[in-house]
Amino acid sequence: MHDDTVERTTDGAGRLQDLTFEEIRKLNPAAKHRLRSQFQDEKVPTLREAVVESMHHNLTIYFDVKGHANQAVDALKQLYQEFPQLYNSSIVCSFMPDVVYKMRQADRNVVTALTFRPWQLSHLGDGTSRFSSSWKHFLYMVMDVILDWSLHSFLWRLCGVSAFLIQKNFVSQDYVRHWSSRGIQVIAWTVNTFAEKSYYESVLDCSYITDSLVEDCDPHY
Predict the structure, then answer these.
(1) How much is the pTM?
(2) What is the C-alpha separation between 89 and 121, in angstroms, rounded?
C-alpha cells in the first residue's frame, strides 16, 4: 500500500495500521481507477501475488519500501530466492537509507535505489509544512539539509545503489550528468503529462515513473 490511509487508492476508509489484512483484502484497489468499470471485483493482493502477476506481464517491479526495514528485507529476500528472475526485473527503493543498506547486506545481487525529494522531512509534497509547531518545523528543516548532504556525498556509495529516484521538479541536465559520471542512473517521479515526458525523453534522456502511458494525469507528489 502506498499511503498511510486507504481512502485515495481503495473504496475503504481508515488508517492502514488500524486495519487487519483480512479487512484490507476486502477493499477494491480499482475503485477509483479510470478503468474501474472493467475491474469491478478486484482485491488487494499479497506481495507474492502482486509479484507473480507482474512477472506474468513482464513488468519491471519497483519495491517501494516505506519502513520496517528488517521485516521488509526478510520478505524481499525470500521472494528473490523463490523467483531468481527478479534480479533482472526489479529494484528495491526507499526514502530510508537503512532499508537500502540492509537489503544490500542481505543480498548484494539485488539492484537498489535511494528515493529522494528535497525538504521531504519538513514539508509535504505540495510544499506545505508537516508541522504546526515552528520549532519542530525548523528542526526538521535542519535535518533535511543534513540528509540532502549525506545522500549526495556518501550515503549513495555506502548503500551501494544503482539508481537515484528523485521528484521530477528537481531534475536538471546537470543533475543527470552529475550522477551519470558516477555510474548512477536518475529516475524521475512522477511524470504525468505528455509535455514532461517528451522533455525527459528528448532533452534529459532520463528514465521516469508515470501513472499512465496513454494519457495525462493529475500531478502526484
Answers:
(1) 0.90
(2) 30
pLDDT in tens, 199-209: 999 999 999 99
Q: In what order do the strands lie in the sheet with 207-208?
A: 61-65, 90-94, 112-116, 163-167, 185-189, 207-208
Q: How many CA atoms lie within 13 A of 44 on its CB side?
A: 19
Burial of residue 69 (number of CB atoms within 10 Å: 0-12, 13-18, 19+) = middle
The CA distance from 51 to 98, in Å, is 23
- DSSP summary character for residue 92: E
Asked if residue 99 lies in contact with residue 72, where contact means CB atoms within 8 angstroms, the answer is yes
Q: Using the structure block, give the residue that is written with the C-alpha cell 528472475.
A: 85
Helix (H, G, I), strand (E, B) or coil at 128: coil
Q: Which of 33, 50, 44, 42 is nearest to 90 (CA)?
A: 50
CA distances from 110 to 29, 84, 177 (A): 28, 10, 24
Three-state SS for 163?
A: strand
For residue 210, which of 173, 163, 194 has the smallest C-alpha distance? 194
Q: What does the alpha-carbon distance between residue 99 and residue 93 come to, in Å, rounded to a whole number?
A: 8
Residue ranges of alpha helices (H) inside 42-193 are 47-56, 69-82, 97-106, 134-150, 156-159, 173-180
Is residue 220 pLDDT above 80, yes or no?
no
